[in-house]
Amino acid sequence: MQYPVISRLLDLAITIQQIPAPTFHEAERAAFVRSCFAEEGLAEVEIDPVGNVYACLKSARRQPFTINRPLVVSAHLDTVFPSSVDLRYEREPEHILAPGIGDNSLGVAGLIGLIWMIRKRKITLPGDLWLVANVCEEGLGDLRGMRALVDRFGHCREQSAERSDPLAYLVIEGMALGQVYHRGLGVRRYRITVRTSGGHSWIDYGQPSAIHELTAISTRIAALELPRSPRTTLNVGVISGGSSVNTIAAEAMLELDLRSEDSQALETLVGQVEQITHSAEKPGVTIELEVIGQRPSGELPADHPLVKLAQDCLRAVGSEPHLNIGSTDANLPLSRGLPSVAIGLTTGGRAHTVHEFMNIAPLENGVEQLIRLVSKVWDQI
Known about the structure:
9 helices, about 25% strand
């Protein structure tokens, strides 16, 4: 039997999903979330200069001259889809099919759903609860929103009853129920641009082509032998260039994604890519190698109280926990040595495609997991 809040949560997730929110263009969705926070009567509701939306549920157990460390719960606003994508949805008894529904419209809706559950159960939290819907988690956003969030709370040198370091950062993803992401996967992203003088495909044949040079670089990079352990990957996700079929291309570009479980393995791969790129330069060919994304790595030990609590909360709702590594907003606080985990609210699949779907039945367990984690974290961290 579903909690009464589940149906409301699904309705809200769909409403959020229907608002386009490509990375760097989340303002409309942010404004809607801000209005939701305000309607719930939360304190300190605002949108910061980068576009993050903040709200605070003040603790009713605040004691004078007592440090009540706040808890920060966040979910990213942005999606991988451009504004031109058709956002129509299909709602079936067992699932909802819609671009961005689980990544991360449901996660954002979960911030408000958390407030509903706290009030429904009359839970009194011993510290302030900060809710943040942040921008720029996807693609080339480079965790800009999360970086601003962590910078805002910062590291307080002088603790006081009015301000102190956050107890922890909990990151909500819509479709990762059962996972506890306590390790941040290191990521480096490059844009490689090749430029030549170009020319006519017949008259100037023999002159270097930016496309030919770039594909040669891509082929050499793709041929690199990567370690299986620690797992290390590379992917050319975007490639473009040229102006017509009978023109020697004067410019071509690709975007490259490098990842590894191990920071040293990532640096080794970075060095190999840079060496291949630089060695490809020659007369008439200029190459620009630009870093366009850098997600820092970090790790919370598996025996840390927050990781153990997250696992306990999953077991309590009948879900087997899986400790995992991923590239999420949690990377940022983890890289600074701050307690953080990313968790999910339900299961689903085909994320980052127009056929994305989320399952409805597991959401009840996901919500219960979240409310347990939030209500117990002050006692166990």
